[in-house]
Amino acid sequence: MVEKTAFELGTDGPLVILAGVDGSETSMRAAAYAGGLARRQGAKLVLAYFRPIGSATPQAGAALAQVGLENAADLERQIREGVERIPAGQRVRWEFYTAEGDPYHGLIELADRIRADAVVIGASERAGHRILGSVAVRLVKTGRWPVTVVP
């Protein structure tokens, strides 16, 4: 008797790759790596920046929110300029997403919403994250998608 096997619905590679960016050197390398991966796989690239959450005082909170918006605009400008340097036939479909909030929870929510097949993030450059755990380590431990951590 021949045993029936279930047919797997899926693809041979990722359709959506999510990369977290914050302007740090490692996050920009992660974005470049994710872009190359998306190009080779024919996937859409989603780049996400999560702006810091407000402060205890209204004045400081407003200033922090404004800096976050300026950082987001600068990151999107840098990404657009980088994409424009790539020959037209080698460009990938991409989106830039920004929201206020914690990067770890924001990336999880966004990855689930866009049905990301993979997440790429830069290794933390902060010494304290060796003790408390970086966003990258926490994403790996979440275990919902393959996570690539770029040094």
TrEMBL record:
Residue ranges of domain UspA in the record: 17-151
Q: Which SUPFAM superfamilies does the record associate with it? A: Adenine nucleotide alpha hydrolases-like
**Pfam families noted in UniProt:** Usp
Give the UniProt family note: Belongs to the universal stress protein A family.
| PANTHER family, per database record | STRESS RESPONSE PROTEIN NHAX, UNIVERSAL STRESS PROTEIN UP12
Q: What is this protein called?
A: Universal stress protein
Native organism = Actinocrinis puniceicyclus
